[in-house]
Structure formats: C-alpha cells, structure tokens
Amino acid sequence: MTQTLPSAAVLGARAFAALAGLNRFSDEPGKLTRLYLSPAHRQAAEWVKGAMEVAGLTAFIDAAGSVQGRREGAVPGAAAVMIGSHIDTVKDGGRFDGNLGVVAGILAVQALRDAGVALPFPVEVVAFGDEENVRFPTHLSTSEALAGHYDPAWLNAKDEDGETLSQALRAFGGDPDGIPALARAPGSLRAYLELHIEQGPVLEAQNEAVGIVTAINAQSRARLRVTGEAGHAGTVPMALRKDALSAAAEMVLALEAIAAAHDNAVGTVGVLRPEPGATNVVPGAAEFTVDFRAPLDETLAAMETEIRNRFAAIASRRGVGLEIVPYARAAAVPMDPALQDALAAGIARSGSNLSARRLPSGAGHDAMAMAAIAPAAMLFVRNEKGISHSPLEKMTEADAGLAIRVLIETLLELAAQLR
Ligand code: HGY
Ligand code: MN
Ligand code: MN
C-alpha cells in the first residue's frame, strides 16, 4: 500500500537537519573548508555512506573517493537513474553548494521507500569528491572517473604542499589503480539528475523557487608564472625594474577587460602569489590562476586568444618571462531536452504553483562530465542574492523542501514514462 509522500515542509526540515550533520566536517574550524581527500572529506564521506544506508541505499566509498549508493528497482537489469552532486567545497565555502544535491538525493530515495513506492528502475545517489578542483589542478575528476574520462596525469597533480593526488588518495583510503574500473558501461544510466543552488541572482529576481538548467557554460582555467628580477625595494630605479608582481597585476586587469568585452562572459583571478613576498623586495616572480567562462565555445576560444596575446605583449614590454599552464577546459554542455521536460512535469506534479523557468548555468557542475554518458539535467534552487562560494551562502528550508519534492515527482514521472 502506498502511503503518502512527505510534504515539502517536512522534506525541507529533514534537508536542513542533514546538512547540519554533514557540515560538521571541515578542515578549518569556524569555516566550511572540505577539500578533496582531506580528513574532513573522509569524515563527510563516511557520514554520507551511513545516511545512504539509513535511507535504504547500499553504499560504498569508491576508489576515487566518491560515495556511491544504489537502491534496486522493480525491473531487473533496468538502467539506473542517478542523482548526484558533490561534498567537496571551496575554501571558506557555503553550506549548500553541492551538499544540498547529495542530501536531496538521499531524502528522495528515503521518501519513496517509506511511501512503499517501487520504481521500475534502480536509483543511484553519488556524492562526488572533486568538483571544486581547488586542491589539485584537475577538472571534475571524480565524476569523469564514472564517465570513463579520467586523465591519468591527474594522479601526479600536486597540491600547494607538493603532495600528489595519488599519495593523497592512498592516504584517504582510495585506490588509484581502481579508478579505471569505475567507468560506467554505456547505457547503464538512463538519466543523471542534479539538484543544486543556482549560485546566481536570476531565480530570486524572478521570484521563482526552482528553475531548469538549459546548458552549462564553457570554461577554462590555467596556472601562470611570471618571472622577473628580485631586487632591493629601496635601490632599484623604477625604469630598471622587472617587477613580476606589477606585470601580473597588469595581466589581471587585462583579463577583466577582455571578459567585460564579451556578452555574458566572466574572467577571474582567484589566486595571486608574489615571490619571495617580502615588503622590501621587488617581486622576482608571481604565480596566479585564471578562470574564464562563456556561454559559447567560440566566445571562449576568442577570449583565450586575446588573453594569450595581451599577456605576451605585457611580458615583452616589461622584460619578464611568462609561462601559461592550462589545466581545465570544458566545452559548453547542453542539458538533455527530454529530461528538462521531465523536470518540468515533476514541477507540475508537485502541486506547487511553481513555473518551470529555464536558465543557463554560469557555474560548472558534475553534470558536465556525466552528460557524456547519460542524458543529464539540473534543477536549480533559489539562494539568497545568488551568493555562493562564500560563508554568506543562504537559502530557505521551504525552497529546499519544494525542490526535493520536485525531484521525487520527477522520478515518478520517469517511472510513469516507462509504463
Ligand atoms: O567553479 C565552479 O563553477 C564550480 O562551483 N566548481
Ligand atoms: Mn557546486
Ligand atoms: Mn562550487
């Protein structure tokens, strides 16, 4: 007998209680910093595994450090519907980015189990571990592992302390040699769904609680090193300097101008480290990162050419060296139209007076990787002022509950399509 499904209010309360538990695990007291393969990531992964098991999923922590859970369906051998997101965070990040989507998947499975609903397909929930790519110069490595596109070179990538990903993975309890076997067989997934805060202002401005993602913007990242000449801050005449930090600063402003010149494009320098970093020493070197994005691949390519040309001209005029090491490049990824429509049907079935507004994603997500092996779609949830990658990241319990109810109804819609 099918009991009733929990209300959005109950689902929201459960989500916030679960997030309070999950977000106890941080590498920085007083902040939420949970980098890939850190001690806090291990604790969070174990917490998620336990939460999955309580919800009726069979769960394990995989070779790459993600947590995979699965609940079998009524039809043997049917392709699974996967619900995923990530539990790694940026430094001093928000409580909801990634974490909400994992908790939502667990709560959706739990609600259907408790209501006695047997879906005709297995449902999997995955908590990916390396979506932010903050610790190592990788790109969505743990979801790319499932997609079968893991770059073995990532294993030798080093963090700022010089530890390789491979060393950190073994210390975490993972298994670098076991990563290739994580690749999913083509056709083994019927759909990939991800619920995620919007991390932008559109839904709030439109007074919408949820939205359906149409596409995820193209993005590119690189590490750069400018090499000049260190010198005495008091004696080297300005005209004779090869100040690496001043050159890097000019490049930072050049990136800003290039991004501003292209519609809906963005460009960011989030890390800038002068060397040796002493008040009275002209910086002999400077390392920094660039992150730039655009809705269209061709726009990103044009930006990349402009960046290289402008940076080279600055380096030449200032007589400094410049090394650019790209480490992440992702083409724009359209979301599956039929799965977008299933989310719209899930919104309609949820009985709420929500509209199925559609919008692009400026932020990257694991859905970019998973779209290579399954139809992928994302449900965005409003978050206050769109603030994210910040401890000020906020959302309401009510919106979280509405979104999880939509996710449940979308699973029921997919099941109805099979009848
Ligand atoms: O940077 C991003 O777009 C994502 O939040 N990792
Ligand atoms: Mn995220
Ligand atoms: Mn993020």
Main attributes?
Alpha-Beta Plaits; Aminopeptidase; 22% strand; binds manganese (II) ion; 9-stranded mixed β-sheet; elongated; binds (2S)-amino(hydroxy)ethanoic acid; 35% helix; single chain; 419 residues; 11 helices; 5-stranded antiparallel β-sheet; alpha+beta; 2 domains
CATH superfamily of the largest domain: Zn peptidases
Characterize the main sheet.
9 strands, mixed
Which fold name fills CATH's third level, the topology of the largest domain?
Aminopeptidase
Distinct small-molecule ligands in the complex: (2S)-amino(hydroxy)ethanoic acid, manganese (II) ion
Structural class: alpha+beta
User: What is Rg?
Assistant: 23 Å
Number of domains: 2
Q: List the secondary-structure elements in sequence, H or E.
A: HHEEEHEHHEHEEEHEEEEHEEHEHEH
CATH architecture of the largest domain: 3-Layer(aba) Sandwich
pLDDT < 50 stretches: none
* DSSP, total strands: 16
Give the helix tally.
11
Estimate the mean pLDDT confidence.
Answer: 97
Distance between the termini: 19 Å
CATH class of the largest domain: Alpha Beta
Query: What best-fitting shape do the alpha-carbon axes yield?
Result: elongated
State the helical fraction: 25-40%
Please indicate the percent range of residues in DSSP E strands (runs of 2 or more).
Answer: 15-25%
In short:
This protein has 419 residues and is an alpha+beta fold. 35% of the residues lie in helices and 22% in strands.
